[in-house]
Structure formats: C-alpha cells, structure tokens
Amino acid sequence: MLNDTLRRVLQQMPKAELHIHIEGSLEPELIFALAERNGVKLPYGSVEALRAAYAFTDLQSFLDIYYAGASVLLHEQDFYDMTAAYLRRAEADNVRHTEIFFDPQTHTHRGVPMDVIINGIHRACQDSPVSATLILCFLRHLSEDDAIATLEAALPYRDQFIGVGLDSSEVGNPPEKFARVFARCRALGLHLVAHAGEEGPPAYIYTALDTLNVERIDHGVRCLEDPALTARLAKEQMALTVCPLSNIKLCVFDRMERHNLLELLDAGIVATVNSDDPAYFGGYMNDNFIATFEALPLGLSHAQRLARNSFAAAFLPAAQKQQYLDEVDAFFAKV
Ligand SMILES: Nc1ncnc2[nH]cnc12
Ligand SMILES: [Zn+2]
C-alpha cells in the first residue's frame, strides 16, 4: 500500500504527459452524447454495455473498439469537446505540459476534412491553461502512400503540430515501412517519434532509431530482451514513453507487479509514465503513477526522477524545459 505522503506527492508533483492518444480519451459517456448529437448509431445499447466490451486480450482487440468509438467524431466542435475534456483531466492531475497524439486517418477515411480535425483539437489546446502541443500519428496498418497523402493534407496546418508519430497495429508493420515519409518529415523540421517494442520485437526499436531517426520511443518496454539495445538506449538517453495501465490492459505484462518500469530506470533509461488511452485503460496520469507505485518498490526518489524525465524528454525550448525541471526540484525540496 502507498503511504499518504507518497500518494500526495504523485498527485501534486508537476509532470508532463508525452504519450496520450486524444481519441483514447473519449469516455463512454461522451461517445454516447456525441452519437446522439450527430445521429450516429452505435453497436452498443448503453454506456454500460460499451464499458463491458473493454475486456482486451491484445492490442488489436483494443484497436477495433477504439476505432468504433472514434466514429462519433464528425464536427470541429466534437474534436474540441473531446480535447477540452482531456485537458481538464490533465490539469486536475497537475500535468503542466502535454504532447497529444491524434490519428487523422481514422477520421479522413470517414470523410471528415483535415481542417475540422486539426482546428478542433488545436483550438481546445489554445483555450486550456495546460501547455499542449500536437503530434500527428500515421496509422501503420495502412500504406506508406496513405501516410504521405495524409502528411500533404496536413501541411497547410503545419504550424499547428510539432511532430509526427507512428501507431496502430505494430506486429507485421515495422518502422522501416515508413522510411520515406519519416525522411520527408525530418526534412520539414518535424519532431519524430514511433511506437516500437510494445508488442513488436526489439528489432522494431532498432529500425525506429536507425531508419526513422526518432527522438523518443513510444512504449519500448521490450528493449530489455536485448541487453545491447538496453545499454544503447541508456547511453543515448533515448526516452521511452511507458504506459503502465495500458500494458496491463493489453496483456503486455500479466499484472502490474510484473511490469518492468523499475528495471528500465535501474538500467539508466529515461523512462516516463503516461496514460496512452486513459478512457479505455482505467485511468489518467495520476492513476498510472499510483497503480505503478502501489505494485512496485518505487519511492520518492523515483517519483522525482520520473517527473524530471517527463520534462527532460519533452519537445520544449531549453529555457522552458529548465523552468519546469526547476519547478520539479523546488516541489521535491519541500516534501
Ligand atoms: N497503445 C497503442 N498502441 C498502438 N496504437 C495505438 N493507438 C492508440 N493506442 C495505441
Ligand atoms: Zn500509444
């Protein structure tokens, strides 16, 4: 059990979130409200029936429901409302800065225009007291040509996102499938990240680094299967955006006591804690911290390190980053 001090510290410490899919923040109540507002018929009769379907066996079983949930998003105000709801939750968890993933292809393939998606999400970010930037993710189960067309469609809104990522079904869709589009994004000065080593093997982490030139690895927890890779990630201070509750819900680890977050930290890796798809996986940032610290032998020094890592790994100007790091240290000096 967590003592009261540690619980309070986890809740109140300043933190950044670096791995959140905005479509994964759609709570069942909002899915039903938007379905009604937009006249969309859902294959579930009630909020309870939808929630009961959240019993996942692997990544794909989750993605099928996640894409169905996103089908209620049609208008700019829907994207605004979804994002504003997430940002209120983040603010309540003392998230000071968040880098939000969005999946345009999930929506453009249903006929929703790119400007509707980006403007709705971006406007909610501007209206929030939480610092928020956007990362456009390509769906890796689709073709690279589709990713390239998506990038072209998003370029008129280039100033509204800071980077690109790679998500969706990992196994069978290795990073190198997207070498050309990532090279183009790099030339455009976009930040680069990719999901790798969630369900996929360490080889996918190598190609995310060496072929795509990513600056962070999303998940990456399977790196520990390869000692040379683990040592390299530590040496290069390549951050991993770890999502503990997600890993349990998608059966990457069978229970939290078996999660490898502490081993990653002990190996010298810049691991961070994040929520991934909080509406589907049982919690937002503080729920992830509390569940992990309850299950693993982690203490105050780990909390400080994780809070520092979250800002150190953020795509922020150096001065702003230092300000947040100083804020973390000032917070822990008073604990
Ligand atoms: N955990 C995850 N892995 C891959 N793609 C995703 N899309 C949303 N959540 C994801
Ligand atoms: Zn993810």
Question: Could you describe the 3D structure shown?
Answer:
With about 325 residues, this protein is of the alpha/beta class. It has one domain: Alpha-Beta Barrel (TIM Barrel). It is built from 17 helices and eight strands. It has an eight-stranded parallel sheet with strand order 1-2-3-4-5-6-7-8, sandwiched between helices. Bound molecules: adenine and zinc ion (ZN). It holds the Pfam family A_deaminase. It is an enzyme of class 3 (hydrolase). Keywords: Hydrolase, Metal-binding, Nucleotide metabolism, Zinc.
Which CATH first-tier class would you pick? Alpha Beta
Instruction: Strand order, main sheet: write it out.
Output: 1-2-3-4-5-6-7-8
Uncertain parts: none
Query: Domains counted in the coordinates: how many?
Result: 1
Q: Determine the N-to-C terminus distance.
A: 19 Å
Query: What's the rounded overall pLDDT mean?
Result: 98
Q: What is the CATH architecture assignment?
A: Alpha-Beta Barrel
> What general outline do the C-alpha atoms trace?
globular
User: If you consult CATH, what is the topology?
Assistant: TIM Barrel
Report the sheet with the most strands, covering strand number, pairing sense and barrel closure. 8 strands, parallel
Number of strands: 8
Q: Could you name the CATH homologous superfamily? A: Metal-dependent hydrolases
Active site: 198
Domain Adenosine deaminase: 14-330
InterPro entries: A_deaminase_dom, ADE, Ado/ade_deaminase, Metal_Hydrolase
Function: Catalyzes the hydrolytic deamination of adenine to hypoxanthine. Plays an important role in the purine salvage pathway and in nitrogen catabolism.
